[in-house]
Amino acid sequence: MEVAVRTDREGRHACLVPAGPFDLAHVTAVVKAVATAEPRLDGCRSIDVDLADIERIDGTGAVLLAQLLDRLEAEGLRTQVDQSRNPEAARLIALYRGRRAELPAKIRAPGVFARFGAAAAKFPGKILPAFDFVGRCAAALPKAISSPGSVGWRSLPKLVQEIGADGLLVTSAANLLVGLIIGFLGVSQLKRFGSVVFVPELVVVAQFRELGPLVTAIVVAGRTGAGLASELATMQVSEEIDALRSMGFDPLRWLVAPRCLALVVILPLMTWVGDVLALAGGFIATESITDLTPRTYIVETGAAITAENLLSGLIKTPFLALAIGMIACGQGLATRGGAAEVGARTTTAVVQAILGVILIDAVFTLFYALVGI
Predict the structure, then answer these.
(1) Model confidence over 165-182: pLDDT tens digits?
(2) Would you give the distance in Å from CA 252 to the centre of its chain?
(3) Among candidates 275, 153, 270, which has minimal Cα distance to 223?
(4) Is 292 exposed, middle or buried (0-12, 13-18, 19+ CB in 10 A)?
(5) For 237-251, how does the pLDDT look when each residue is reduced to its tens digit (9 = 90+)?
(6) Do the Cβ atoms of 220 and 167 come closer than 8 Å?
(7) Which has fewest Cβ within 10 Å: 107, 174, 257, 284?
(8) Where are the domains of the chain?
(9) Which 3-state string (H, E, C) describes the chain?
(10) String of DSSP letters for 122-146
């Protein structure tokens, strides 16, 4: 018997009669028969389906008939399948129609407020591990003092070399450019009031109190923070951290303590070098576009360099360094998985370290403003 789909119409009622083999071997004929029958049902309000003439049916034929009935119902037609004359075919068609009905509705993309709410709901779960890591580091500090042999002191010179000497060029260049920017900006604004002589003081105050520590710490967070996080993350996924624990070494004392200590020692020195180069950048900017003499610039700069301006910036740097070290090391030790997780943790460490640096600097600035420093 050939594959066909016969339609017997009586006004707005029709009877759909598929006939022949509705299986994979005859799928081309089935598709053609179904496509031919559908236009003949235009204008109908109800349709009965008689499956008595189907010789055999498999999943392919059942899916095509189920899709046809779904399309008809979507257009507002009422369909009814006669199950008495071919219950096996009726059951198979109903099975595929049921699966189609159970498919989940299209998920709408969450709105802005929904995303903010989801992020806020996840925040406690993210901040608690950070507090846990800080607490474990604080608990490990007395043990490191009482047992110096448990700290990896031998790695300290190498860390100082990698963090300080190898990164000095980048931080110095950044601070030199910042000094140039402050100088050009100061001249463009103060020149309108005939106050170019105050540009050296502007460079000193802006660089020493705020921009010097902040720019240096951000550069170190991006360079060194990424290096520390990826190094410890690689050690974690390669089970080197587990090997240290099995030998009786505490990773917090053996790995984290030297890295944080190196950062605390090096960052103030890098900030001081950056401050000096920023003064040079301000000098170049001022002398290149104004008539201010070099002697006047140097005298005004010397008068602006006070212990208050210098120390108010340098006091921040150990706290900034500690934040960078603990965030980078914490993200590295929290790594689970493979190479993709190492990259994700490194990115997270850099972002969080930069945000932490900015937050700590803002807290210090607010404190200075409140106490009048």
Answers:
(1) 899 999 999 999 999 999
(2) 26
(3) 270
(4) middle
(5) 888 888 988 888 888
(6) yes
(7) 107
(8) 4-102, 136-371
(9) CCCEEEEEEECCEEEEEEEEEECHHHHHHHHHHHHHHHHHHCCCCEEEEECCCEEEECHHHHHHHHHHHHHHHHCCCEEEEECCCCHHHHHHHHHHHHHHHHCCCCCCCCCHHHHHHHHHHHHHHHHHHHHHHHHHHHHHHHHHHHCHHHCCHHHHHHHHHHHHHHHHHHHHHHHHHHHHHHHHHHHHHHHHHCCHHHHHHHHHHHHHHHHHHHHHHHHHHHHHHHHHHHHHHHHHHCCHHHHHHHCCCCHHHHHHHHHHHHHHHHHHHHHHHHHHHHHHHHHHHHHHHCCCCHHHHHHHHHHHCCHHHHHHHHCHHHHHHHHHHHHHHHHHHCCCCCHHHHHHHHHHHHHHHHHHHHHHHHHHHHHHHHHCC
(10) HHHHHHHHHHHHHHHHHHHHHHHHH
CATH architecture of 4-102: 2-Layer Sandwich (3.30)
CA dihedral 16, 20, 23, 27 (to 10 degrees): -80
Q: Count Cα atoms within 13 angstroms, Cβ side, for 141.
A: 8
The amino acid sitting at 198 is: F
Residue 172, amino acid: S
Residue 191: band (very low, low, confident or very high) from pLDDT cuts 50, 70, 90: confident
Where is 373: in which H helix or E strand? Answer: none
